[in-house]
Known about the structure:
The complex is a heterodimer of chains A (about 600) and B (about 150). By secondary structure, chain A is of the alpha/beta class. Chain A has five domains: about 5-110, Glutaredoxin (3-Layer(aba) Sandwich); about 135-340, 3-Layer(aba) Sandwich (Rossmann fold), CATH 3.40.50; about 350-435, Ubiquitin-like (UB roll) (Roll); about 440-525, de novo design (two linked rop proteins) (Up-down Bundle); about 540-600, Alpha-Beta Plaits (2-Layer Sandwich). Helix content of chain A is about 40%, strand content about 15%. In chain A, the strands form six sheets. A five-stranded mixed β-sheet of chain A has the order 12-11-15-13-14. In chain A, strand 17 and strand 18 form a beta hairpin. In chain A, helix 7 runs parallel beside helix 11, helix 11 crosses helix 14 and helix 20 (about 480-495) packs antiparallel against helix 22 (about 510-515). Chain A is globular. The model of chain B has no long low-confidence stretch (mean pLDDT about 95). Chain B is α+β, with helices and mostly antiparallel strands and about 150 residues long. Helices cover about 45% and strands about 10% of the residues of chain B. The longest helix of chain B is centred in the first third of the chain and has 12 residues, at about 20-30. Chain B has helices spanning about 1-10, 20-30, 35-45, 50-55, 75-80, 85-95, 140-145, and strands at about 70-75, 110-115, 125, 130.
Amino acid sequence: MKPLLIISAGTCGLARGADEIIDAAKEYQRKNRLQKKFDIKITGCHGLCEAEPNVLVRFNGKFIFYQKLKPENVKDIIEETILKGTIIKDFLWFDPKTKEKYEKIDDIPFYQKQHRILLGHNVLIEPKYIKDYLKLGGYSALGKVLKKYRPLDVINMIKKSGLRGRGGAGFLTGKKWEICRKAKGVEKYVICNADEGDPGAYMDRSLLEGSPHGVLEGMIIGAYAIGANKGIIYVRNEYPLAVENLRRALEQAYRKGFLGMDILKSKFNFDIDIVRGAGAFVCGEETALLASIEGEVGRPRSRPPYPAEKGLWNRPTNINNVETWANVPQIVINGANWFSQIGTKGSKGTKIFSLVGKINNTGLVEVPMGITLREIIYDIGGGIPAGKKFKAVQTGGPSGGCIPHSLLDLPIDYEGLTQAGSMMGSGGMIVMDEDTCMVDIARYFLDFTQQESCGKCPSCRLGTKQMVQILSRITEGNGEYRDLELLEEISENIKASSLCGLGQTAANPVLTTIKYFRDEYLAHIKEKRCPALVCKSLISYVIDAELCSGCTVCAKNCPSDAITGEPKGIYTIDQKKCIKCGICLTVCPSKFKAVKKVSPPVK
Amino acid sequence: MKKVENILREHRYQRSRIIQILQDIHVQYNYLPAKVLKYVSKRLKVPLSKIYSLATFYTAFSLKPRGKHLITVCMGTACHVRGATAMLSEFERRLCIKHGETTRDLNYTLETVNCLGCCAIGPIIVYDGKYIGEFKLKDVTKVLQGKL
């Protein structure tokens, strides 16, 4: 087989310079007339974001993983590895935990415990063209369904597989389809919810960018099972590359006859439209999403009636998230039993998590349900950088909670996370170390929810605002003991009297941090101290006289002229003038490290 | 108004596509000018109050002209724990505006976004469509001098 240079070019790869790697590779290939010697494939994200920009070199059946490349490295890779077969040690992945270098992608610890049913495709598919997806057996699931199965067979298969919605609540997908199938209505709709709004979650973006046809195929199969002829993908506008790749994939699918009239001569008709979101987090909630597609303000309405009975334009509508749809073709090809063997009793299959924050191997990980947090964070994620201590992991976005060290052996599935006070959500997993202030995190999430609250339910609109005020008060050092009780009381009220998931779960970040990190709240309230040195009002910047060498850099960069001293002497910060911007800390040369943060603040 | 008319035609004058229409207008003008909204209201027979409510509900829309350069600071959780707040306040301090505002000389608009999904390289900002990852406080000056 011809050697192949596979370049990872998802949004984060491009942000780190993958486009320059692509240009350099193409240029070198063209100039040296090497088109016959090797091929270039530009794919979606390979998952290990930490290593971007990265490439895979396929030769002799091996996939060699090269990471953190610069455009000038491309020449070496082509000359040495592709043409001569020598491996360049400098570009190999160095694992922070095992302290070893790895040649083959499959040997890297980050990939070893993963089960990449969906993300695995990203490495092999050039999303610009449909041919790679077809080569991997793409659309054969659709062919099989249209030829051999009745719609009810498909529904039963999905039910049997145990697939649950990957967007948050985890409703059984087959059951949802069945309800929509049975609902009365001439016209029915299927919708793909690609309004991935949870901060810190980007698996849907990666799937849409890297393997858009997988999502389309899932939707077409679902539409056939439900009896819908119209589909809509509601995609977040902040994902320009995903929108572009989706658009192109739609055109290709129409041209090949996978969409449109009489699909694969089965008399089944199905069309898909793309609707771009306009930047409202609440539109990820299904009834708000429907309102937004109808051209209204995206405010949720009460359920029942559920969208499966009365959805878009009051017609039966089935809404599933990107990852759910992408699982469907895999289940059809490999069978319901295959799928239900992966995972735990109540949660089947794999789940993609975005492992981000204070973690060594940042990236997208696809793991079987039931894996423990410890395995994800330490075995796959390689632990916490810079020798810092793990403090908590936040799952489920603004609706989720912070899980402490004591629960690291918790098996991850829908029920397990809910029991811990958090939730699966869309799969964001943000790791926090000792430098993260839990009160500040709670305030951050509440501030988020408060801004994104649509304003329909007073308890959510006003309650979140009050909670932000209380939390801000605490982070500013003006908190009181009764604030904790007050926070809990408001939380209960919002939970009980909000219409949609946004309000009902808004308090989770606060409740879990109070439950597991009460001592941090007390330090803020009682001692006016921020243990993580984050809350601006509770810290001061000081210069350590023993470490300062008088290099003048901090004084030159201080925007408020708060730093004074003699060159070669010792510098001091005037606390009255200091605006706590932190620039002095970042510019102080690392050989001195003389600027420090202290809490409680210097008087 | 020819441009607006073209946009309306592309969307087949469908009232249900009003959000998509506003998005296209926003791309065209870089904001939603009042007189254009009045025109759209008339052509589609949609009350201006409804268009106003959409334009103020969705964060993608601005009713005020925006700056020549757009700086977007990602405030996602991963960026937050890596210090995005400090980056934002530094931009705010240097430009003398709050986020969501435009400088008086219409040179810069400063915005935040909930998450760009580039969490591995946070904190991240976007300057005129260009993603700049692993952003540091001292890079603020470079951005404002057009050196990044």
